[in-house]
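Trying the structure run again after the queue cleared.
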Amino acid sequence: MYRPRRLRQYEAWRGLIRETRLSADQLVMPLFVRAGRNIRAAIPSMPGQCQLSIDQLVKDARELLEQRVPAILLFGLHAGPKDEKASGAYAKDGIIQQAVQALKAQVPELLVITDVCLCAYMSHGHCGVVKYVRGSRKPRTQNPQPRTERDFYIDNDATLELLAKTAVSHAQAGADMVAPSDMMDNNVAAIRRALDQADSARLPIMAYSAKFASSFYGPFREAVDSAPAFGDRRSYQMDLANADEALREARLDIEQGADLLMVKPALGYLDVIRRIKDELRHPLAAFSVSGEYAMVKAAAARGWIAERSAWLEILTALKRAGADVLITYWAKDAAKLLRER
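Done. Tokens:
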């Protein structure tokens, strides 16, 4: 008679037959960069995470590489004035552009993936160019009036032009990969075309193929000051109930030239990860987002769960579901723990 417990008796047996394995070389660490020097500004809703000046970013990048974390996903905080064209996103002296140049000069072995989006640079906080419906009064961003989703819309194709400019500027600064997170239709095609024309045909794209409109983004929006001044993002981020649509989005991104797909958030969307991996067999990342990180940190701080084992369980679940790449704010700690095991 087969008795499964025979091979569960000792850790040596359990390790020998373990089906899903974690490795530091599968991890990507999200980091936030801001202007200034010698700055490590704590993010209250994300204990242990900071907004970093470029010198501190380079320091953390070196430490990540020492722990064998191969890549970071870089988000920028815009110090200058924001406008309705997101000019800071594609400026040659923008914060991301400066940070990438410093990282590639001082930590060249580290893979630098840059988030390509406009929300942190837009005066209204949306991920694209906002157009107002005729007869609808434009809100004051300092004291916005409540608005319905019928009062404004995001101009998809006008946004694509700005995203392409942003991606090219990141490539010219030395980025190893660009990751458009805006969820505009045909964004991958527009960026691929622009990169190819700018002599960056070798630069890969990680597509936020299934980025859902989620309540788990709150801490991130605090971290980069990117909350919309009015309305919300449900007209461009995906409805959380739709898995078939996620597959359609992922297929479109592959057709348009995406090298790596992504599901975001991760923990509540394991079924989507599994379906995309099973049906498309394309390299796939899962982004364990700020709200997921904050929940674990808050519960652990109260002694309700054991943080290390909880994170290993979460990351293992993402791998088991089919993710090849794990984007997590716990990457550095996970890598250290994996080396100690």
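The chain has eleven helices and twelve strands. Worth checking whether this holds up in the mutant runs.
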